[in-house]
Design brief:
The protein has a single domain (19-391), classed as MFS general substrate transporter like domains (Growth Hormone, Chain: A, Up-down Bundle). It is built from 15 helices and no strands. The radius of gyration is 22 Å and the shape is globular. Residues 1-10 and 251-258 have low confidence and may be disordered. It is mostly helical and 392 residues long. It has helices spanning 2-16, 22-53, 59-77, 79-105, 111-147, 151-167, 169-181, 193-196, 219-243, 251-256, 261-274, 276-308, 313-338, 340-360, 369-391. It is a multi-pass membrane protein.
């Protein structure tokens, strides 16, 4: 009886140490989800368009490559160091400024503006996502303690909710881009069979082809798009600053403040060497980057823009976003019953089958719904990859 009483007292004391109520925790999950939504509405949409909007000299895809190159460096050095100094909230807010600078650079997209902006956003992305994961994980653990639930289940549910909201950025961002760029291509434009054969898996970005579907929209339209996107990023930043509650920096994080960045890097590789699960997560994370690069860079240009025009990129990616959002929430709940491994296996089968079909399929302008089906299938697999990796 004394043991049980002591256990209850310890549990109650643990609950008393939690700085937020259940309502505040759920509110914070909602706020951080909305903040990320408003930041990634413009970023995801402009990313989808980069390979077509800035195709000259490979500026669009080159800029994206620089972003992820800088992101790799940032992942090794910055997240732990920055979060330990600023805390999760202010790390998120500070990193969002990097996205604002990137949107501004697209007003005049040349190598001199895109390269530094890509480096800045790449360096800011790792602390942003690390702080988000840390914040949601803390919220999930505290909520599990308050409700006497399993932390892993609550964590999966919170990340599922977050990615359901986050993935709708594909919907809203592409609605905006589609409406702004809608008048740039003639509705009755039809490609010849020879031109269509140069789309899809046979598309070669190094060869100039006579296809007006790939023409850059009027510059005034592009600048209007960037202005709208900058406003969205600004609102997302303000939501985080004024409505997200900060998490006190714990003693473990305070201890890491005194460590030099090389020491953090050594500890990172030491942990990677000792943990087989971390090695597997690295492989999954690398795949996540590859599959997102494919849908944003290759699919949007080779299959959508080349075949049915840049004005339809937004509409097809809206389909991708809707499917992704629905599946993110659904798979977050399903994980509690089937586990993560079957979901990952399902995602790889869906992506593998879709990739095989895209290799064999010769793009056609009609029927258009086939391209939408491919986008939806890719969104289904991506929903599993994103939500489950972040919740692992």
């Amino acid at each position: 009886m004394d043991i049980e009483k002591g256990s209850e007292e310890k549990k109650q004391k643990s609950k008393d140490d939690i700085p937020f109520t259940k309502f505040q925790i759920l509110r914070n999950v909602f706020v951080i989800s909305c903040g990320f939504l408003l930041i990634f509405i413009p970023f995801q949409s402009i990313t989808n368009l980069q390979s077509t909007l800035n195709k000259e000299e490979g500026l669009g895809t080159g800029g994206l490559a620089i972003i992820y190159g800088a992101l790799i460096i940032s992942c090794m050095f910055l997240p732990s160091f920055v979060i330990s100094h600023l805390g999760c909230k202010w790390t998120i807010a500070g990193s969002m400024v990097c996205y604002l600078l990137y949107m501004a650079a697209n007003f005049h997209a040349v190598w001199g503006s895109i390269v530094p902006a890509s480096v800045i956003i790449g360096l800011g992305a790792a602390p942003l996502w690390s702080a988000k994961c840390s914040y949601l994980t803390r919220m999930a653990i505290w909520y599990a303690n308050l409700t006497n639930s399993f932390a892993h289940h609550v964590m999966s549910r919170f990340f599922g909710i977050f990615f359901m909201v986050y993935q709708t950025c594909e919907i809203w961002g592409n609605i905006i881009s589609s409406q702004v760029l809608n008048e740039q291509v003639e509705d009755n434009f039809t490609l010849t069979e020879d031109e269509l054969r140069k789309c899809g898996a046979n598309f070669d970005p190094g060869i100039q082809i006579n296809n007006t579907n790939l023409d850059r929209p009027d510059n005034s339209k592009v600048q209007l798009l960037c202005l709208i996107y900058m406003a969205s990023v600004t609102f997302g930043f303000l939501i985080i600053v004024f409505f997200l509650q900060n998490i006190p920096i714990n003693s473990g994080e305070e201890k890491s403040k005194g460590k030099l960045l090389p020491s953090l890097m050594v500890e990172t590789f030491k942990h990677l060497w000792q943990s087989p699960y971390q090695k597997l997560l690295v492989i999954l994370t690398m795949y996540s980057g590859v599959e997102q690069a494919f849908i944003a860079g290759d699919f949007t240009k080779s299959y959508i823009s080349c075949t049915i025009g840049i004005r339809n990129v937004g509409y097809v990616m809206i389909c991708y976003g809707i499917v992704n959002a629905i599946c993110s929430l659904s798979f977050g709940r399903l994980m509690m019953y089937v586990g993560q491994i079957p979901l990952f296996a399902f995602a790889f089968v869906v992506h593998g089958g879709t990739q095989t079909a895209l290799l064999l399929w010769q793009p056609q302008q009609e029927p258009v719904y086939i391209i939408y089906i491919f986008a939806g299938l890719w969104g289904t697999g991506d929903a599993v990859i994103q939500a489950q990796i972040n919740g692992a």
